[in-house]
Amino acid sequence: xxxxxxxxxxxxxxxxxxxxxxxxxxxxxxxxxxxxxxxxxxxxxxxxxxxxxxxxxxxxxxxxxxxxxxxxxxxxxxxxxxxxxxxxxxxxxxxxxxxxxxxxxxxxxxxxxxxxxxxxxxxxxxxxxxxxxxxxxxxxxxxxxxxxxx
Length: 150
Hints:
By secondary structure, the protein is an alpha+beta fold.
């Protein structure tokens, strides 16, 4: 199970790094476009173009900030050890799906099985937290029975 946790963790880190790389590239491209834009006799067009590039830079900075927050959250997770109750860093197997309680990173594939990386603050994450084998919860009209926690 430790190898599974390590792989899920690595996929989450990869997910965040891709987000960071995309945001950093967007910032560089917006700044380059803004710097390349030369002032012409059509001053309003120049100002509008610069304002649009600044908005694009700000949007990418916000995305980079969010990705940094996710990386901080991941850095707090230990992939070693086991848990008897679901907590951050746990792999939880239920009758209706497999979950990795870490960050919201969507579905991850390991050895042909799908695991949903969910944030502890998400609706399903809140329902999973503190649950042990044999416990259950209902979400969106679906009954989830905890079969394994690690």
